[in-house]
């Protein structure tokens, strides 16, 4: 908490601010397993978070993952989903498909992690594969 002082109408008011989030519309409860060529990383995720959010929030060591920070300007968050999960998702938009066209190791079940949002249907556990080759489409 950070105390602050404000002079209002000749009176000194003291108030406190906090960086702690008091309310959240996201609920926890999805365990996400990222399968990589270097091993598996299992971390918690919140419903409403993208897979990119999960990687960032948990400091998952995936080199270069999400280089464009979810702006659909690269394909570094390319993941391969299980068919049951892939089929539950809305079809990808043209912008995502354009970036996926540039992704190495493209698969019929490929999506960009920044566009895959966790839902209650993903409980209790979701497994995704992260291809071993990463290419930043912004450098092509």
UniProtKB/TrEMBL annotation:
Superkingdom of source: Eukaryota
Any one GO molecular function term: electron transfer activity
GO terms under cellular component: mitochondrion
Lineage: Eukaryota, Metazoa, Ecdysozoa, Nematoda, Chromadorea
InterPro entries, per the entry: 2Fe-2S_ferredoxin-like_sf, Adrenodoxin-like, Beta-grasp_dom_sf
Protein name (database record): 2Fe-2S ferredoxin-type domain-containing protein
Organism: Steinernema hermaphroditum
Keywords carried by this UniProt record: 2Fe-2S, Iron, Iron-sulfur, Metal-binding
Record-linked Gene3D superfamilies: 3.10.20.30
Any one GO biological process: P450-containing electron transport chain
């Amino acid at each position: 908490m950070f105390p602050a002082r404000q002079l209002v109408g000749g009176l000194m008011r003291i108030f406190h601010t906090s960086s702690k989030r008091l309310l959240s519309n996201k609920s926890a409860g999805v365990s996400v397993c990222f399968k990589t060529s270097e091993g598996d990383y299992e971390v918690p995720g919140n419903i409403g978070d993208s897979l990119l959010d999960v990687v960032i929030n948990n400091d998952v060591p995936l080199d270069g993952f999400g280089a464009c920070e979810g702006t659909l300007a690269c394909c570094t968050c390319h993941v391969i989903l299980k068919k049951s999960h892939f089929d539950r998702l809305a079809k990808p938009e043209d912008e995502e498909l354009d970036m996926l066209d540039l992704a190495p190791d493209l698969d019929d079940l490929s999506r960009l992690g920044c566009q895959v949002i966790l839902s209650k249907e993903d409980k209790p556990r979701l497994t995704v594969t992260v291809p071993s080759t990463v290419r930043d489409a912004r450098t092509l």
